[in-house]
Write a structure and sequence with these properties.
It is found in: Nucleus. The protein is of the alpha+beta class and 550 residues long. It has four domains: 10-35 and 44-108, OB fold (Dihydrolipoamide Acetyltransferase, E2P); 126-226, Beta Barrel (OB fold (Dihydrolipoamide Acetyltransferase, E2P)); 241-365, Nucleic acid-binding proteins (OB fold (Dihydrolipoamide Acetyltransferase, E2P), Beta Barrel), CATH 2.40.50.140; 379-542, OB fold (Dihydrolipoamide Acetyltransferase, E2P) (Beta Barrel), CATH 2.40.50.140. Helix content is 19%, strand content 39%. It has 13 helices and 28 strands. Strands 10-11-8-7-6-9-12 form a seven-stranded mixed sheet. β7 (154-160) and β8 (165-171) form a beta hairpin. It is globular. The structure holds zinc ion (ZN). The site of zinc ion has 7 residues, from loops.
């Protein structure tokens, strides 16, 4: 039969949100959605599995207006269709799905595919496994994790094929029988297993079912190089670092990036188990942003610090999303798998991007997110350690409280051009002149430039705050409002603005530098950024200091 060429790569494009193009795909399966998952409107929804000749995708919902195509048996399994209009979206758990809004049926192929050999004919992709499969079927998949034997006895194995991943559980006799046989990284054909719904508390793989080995189960080792190449090590469902915020707290995702920094292993006492533990902070970067990852215990100890030095590409499979103070981070987990330079498209892409100078493009995002472990100082230490006097600026973090803001100056007239904040002078003509832009303007802006006294338990310092940082310190009162009060000579209002936000403890990132002016060298301290105090992180830091000092 003459067959239409499928649009290879279309599924990946759609999953990345590029839904503008039409694509020719083959329908592999059609199912009526479970009534409980459809909405209260009681409209029947069909779910399609499709292939583009390269990938398969099983989360395609058909727009209900198109249901008649199925009822009239025009759209059926093995139909070749042209997707004319699709929409891409994510479920509440962050899983991709497509909604088919319009399609054209191009061709009906025969029900049996001719290019499969007899032994391949009843192999089904892992993602198609449900308790409603008929007849005998098997999977051909790679074992990628194997548990130890737990009491009862019970053990489990996680399997992957090109379509997805699934857990297989063995109890008692089957545990004794299969635990010694099945090895990680080997490929097996497995048949005669039961299918059961998963309990998501114990199984965080992306499959709604798991397999249970039974006395009639057959597990056959496949030792074939060509098959080996067709089955991945791990099934990644990579979430770009920018999109982590689309996932809920404690959910499990896969990410990939360049290891940019890593701390040493940091000892602390685990509050729940009261045991000595270690953790390690790692920063991962991609094209868009960076994220901090905390690794725990064995995974923290075993982490190779050269990965950060060599800026290595690393993928984390089943890492946990953590949200604290509205900030996203990732946290290791005992079932997490870390792969160095995994053989996937995204890894090659990152390598090319980084080597082509991606590191410099991203530096802004990195400095915003990362604070080095050793950069925390008390106010006393800033003076004692002579920071900023080595001919280069020192950057430190200080946890302190703003006691008061000096009422001299506070605001100045600034250049109205975006990105130029130079002070402008009013000319006799009434225009404002910017020395940097060499231009005269009818109007000027107001910007903050103020000094504030910060205090912690060890001392006080005066710190300069400019523009955004100053506005933040002032409790987000715009500089224009303050300038107006100043011009009106409204002392009471000015003081209320200055006092509004004082006596709040914050983390301040400070730049300390020597500046020489008229032969006098002075230490200048200015605020680069500020954030709320993360008390959990602060507690861990204190424990670390205590253990180091005593
Ligand atoms: Zn200017």
């Amino acid at each position: 039969m003459a067959s239409t060429t499928l649009t290879k790569g279309a599924i990946t494009l759609y999953q990345n949100g590029n839904t503008q193009q039409s694509a020719i795909v083959k329908v592999l399966d059609i199912r009526l959605c479970d009534a409980s998952t459809t909405t209260a409107t009681n409209v029947e929804r069909y779910r399609l599995s499709i292939t583009d000749g390269q990938d398969t995708f099983n989360a395609c919902l058909l727009k209900p207006e198109l249901n008649k195509l199925i009822k009239e048996k025009r759209l059926r399994v093995n139909s070749i269709v042209k997707l004319e209009n699709v929409a891409h979206d994510l479920t509440s758990t962050g899983k991709s799905f497509l909604v088919i809004l319009d399609l054209t049926i191009l061709e009906q192929t025969s029900m049996t595919t001719t290019n499969n050999t007899a032994s391949n004919s009843n192999i089904i992709p892992i993602e198609m496994i449900t308790p409603y499969l008929n007849g005998t079927w098997k999977i051909r998949a790679r074992c990628f994790t194997k548990s130890a034997i737990r009491p009862h006895p019970v053990c489990d194995f996680d399997f992957v094929d090109a379509s997805g991943e699934i857990r297989m559980v063995a109890f008692r006799d089957e545990c004794d029988r299969f635990h010694p046989i099945i090895e990680v990284d080997k490929i097996y054909e497995i048949s005669g297993v039961r299918v059961k719904a998963v309990d998501k508390r114990w199984n965080n793989l992306r499959h709604n079912y798991e397999l249970i080995l039974s006395p009639i189960s057959v597990v056959r080792l496949i030792n074939d190089e060509t098959i080996n190449g067709s089955i991945p090590d791990i099934h990644y469902d990579i979430v770009s670092l920018r999109d982590i915020s689309k996932h809920s707290n404690e959910s499990f995702i896969d990410v990939i990036g360049i290891v940019d920094t890593c701390s040493g292993s940091i000892p602390f006492i685990n509050r729940t188990s009261n045991k000595d533990s270690v953790r390690r902070e790692v920063t991962l970067v991609d094209e868009d942003t960076s994220i901090s990852i905390t690794l725990w215990d064995e995974q923290a100890k075993d982490f190779n610090e050269e990965l950060a030095e060599n800026k290595t590409v690393v993928a984390f499979h089943r890492i946990r999303v953590a949200i604290f103070n509205n900030k996203y981070s990732l946290s290791g987990h005992k079932n997490m798998i870390m792969k160095i330079n995994p053989n996937i498209r995204q890894a090659k892409h990152l390598r090319i991007w980084y080597d082509a100078g991606g590191s410099t493009i991203n530096s802004q995002a990195i400095t915003n997110c990362v604070t080095k472990e050793d950069s925390w100082k008390t106010i006393q230490q800033i003076e004692k350690e002579q920071l900023g006097r080595q001919g280069r600026p020192d950057y430190v973090m200080v946890k302190a409280t703003c006691m008061h803001i000096a009422d001299d100056r506070v605001v100045y007239t600034s250049c109205p051009k975006t990105d130029c904040f130079r002070k402008v002078n009013k000319l006799s003509s009434g225009l404002y002149h910017c020395d940097k832009c060499r231009e005269d303007f009818n109007e000027c802006n107001w910007s903050y430039m103020l000094r504030a006294e910060l205090v912690d338990s060890t001392g006080t310092i005066w710190v300069s705050f400019f523009r955004q940082q100053a506005e933040e310190l002032m409790g987000n009162i715009p500089a224009t409002n303050f300038a107006q009060a100043k011009e009106n000579g409204d002392e009471v209002l000015m003081q209320s603005y200055l006092n509004k936000n004082t006596f709040r403890e914050k983390n301040f990132r400070l730049r300390i530098n020597e500046e020489t002016f008229n032969d006098v060298t002075l230490i200048k301290i200015s605020c680069v950024s500020m954030s709320d105090v993360d008390f959990s992180e602060y507690g861990h830091r204190l424990i670390h200091i205590l253990r180091k000092e005593f």
